[in-house]
Amino acid sequence: MDNDDYITHEPERRRGQHLQREERGTIQHLYRMKWTLRQIAKQVNCSASTVLNELRRGTPPKTGSRGRPPGYSAKRGQAVYSANRSHCHKPYKANRLTAFMGWVVEQVRDHHWSLDACVGYARLHGLFKDDGIVSTKTLYNDLWAGRSPLSLFDMRGGMLPSMKLV
Question: What's the CA gap between 124 and 119, in Å, rounded?
């Protein structure tokens, strides 16, 4: 075709990547057309075991002994994938460290300490267990993201790392 504004072929799927919604739709369509797992895998450019796992993920269990077994649904497969994916991230550590975070808030607000001074003092004097203290970078990231009980106005005593003197 002479016109570059139209897509005449789909970009090839990279191996090792998670399946996208469009690929799940392709699997659903080809499976309903009675293609084999290997034929579907070749068309989607993935492994046959990936197609089998996706078919198992997107097919609800049969609840009764009568009737047809339920079929694969790309929408259900995407929903199960999204639910599983939401549980695979490392939990946020600062939410569990209420004693340390409370102490840091007190030091910053009452004594005008910087976050770096709080972490260094706590580590030097062993006020908390090593796994009960987050890093200075985590504290500053939380401050900038708004997840910390502190605000930028509380940091008047300790200069923030990105602020420069003029």
Answer: 9
